[in-house]
Amino acid sequence: MHTHTQPGSQAEPSLNPTAPQAEAAPAADHAAAELVLREARRLHKAATSGQLATSLPILRRLLASQVLTGISLPELSRQSALVQRKHLLRLLAIEAGHASWEDYRRALDTLCADQLEHFDIAHQGAGHLNLWFSTLAEAQAHAAEQGGRAVRVGQQAVVLIDR
Predict the structure, then answer these.
(1) Which of 9, 80, 83, 98 is a Cys-bridge partner for 93, taking CB atoms 3.0 to 4.6 Å apart?
(2) Is residue 149 pLDDT above 90, yes or no?
(3) CA-CA distance, 72 to 2, in Å (whole number)?
(4) How far is residue 51's CA from residue 69's CA, in Å, rounded to a whole number?
(5) Are 98 and 107 in contact (CB under 8 A)?
(6) Which residues lie across from 160 on neighbouring strands?
(7) How far is residue 34's CA from residue 41's CA, in Å, rounded to a whole number?
(8) Radius of gyration of the chain (CA)
(9) pLDDT tens digit sequence for 114-125
(10) From CA 3, how far away is CA 153, in angstroms rounded?
(11) Which residues contact 87 (CB under 8 A, 6 or more apart)?
């Protein structure tokens, strides 16, 4: 947990000991990994932006996934410069069901970029209402009944309807 410090000094929030180190750019034949690294860059820029509407959703995800611990959302918002790319890589790994960025990175070598379509959901169909569900199973059940395709996004899922 966040520890008390002397007045005027600043303590960095406790980071999970398995926090990943950012890697150098992947080889050109690793399209899935490149897509994840690009998404981490986009999230990093959003998390450290001065606009609350842009940064707070990302900061909430970091706290909810326990990538960053011992710091409150308001404090993290004030000190958003503490957020590093490695934190976002770990967040994406956890949201994809992996324990660490290193595990996720190895798994990405077995995937093609098309299997990571959930990264495009926020950018595609932004003007359309989408059906969101708490679990992938709920989304799949709805899609089976009503049509569309269920896609996991973090801990939740969305049903996309081809337009």
Answers:
(1) 98
(2) no
(3) 9
(4) 22
(5) yes
(6) 149
(7) 11
(8) 17
(9) 667 656 544 454
(10) 33
(11) 15, 19, 62, 67, 68
CB-based contacts of 66, cutoff 8 Å, min separation 6: 16
Cβ count within 10 A of residue 39: 18
Burial environment of residue 119 by CB neighbours within 10 A (0 to 12, 13 to 18, 19 or more):
middle
3-state SS of the chain? CCCCCCCCCCCCCEECCCCCCCCCCCCCCCHHHHHHHHHHHHHHHHHCCCCHHHHHHHHHHHHHCCCEECCCHHHHHHCHHHCCHHHHHHHHHHHCCCCCHHHHHHHHCCCCHHHHHHHHCCCCCCCCCCEEECCHHHHHHHHHHHCCEEEEECCEEEEECCC
Q: What is the pLDDT of residues 1-41, one digit of tens each?
A: 443 333 344 444 444 444 444 444 444 347 888 888 988 99
Which amino acid is present at 115?
Q
**Which residue, among 20, 52, 60, has the nearest Cα to 36 in the 3D structure?**
20
Pairing label, strands 14-15, 156-160? unpaired
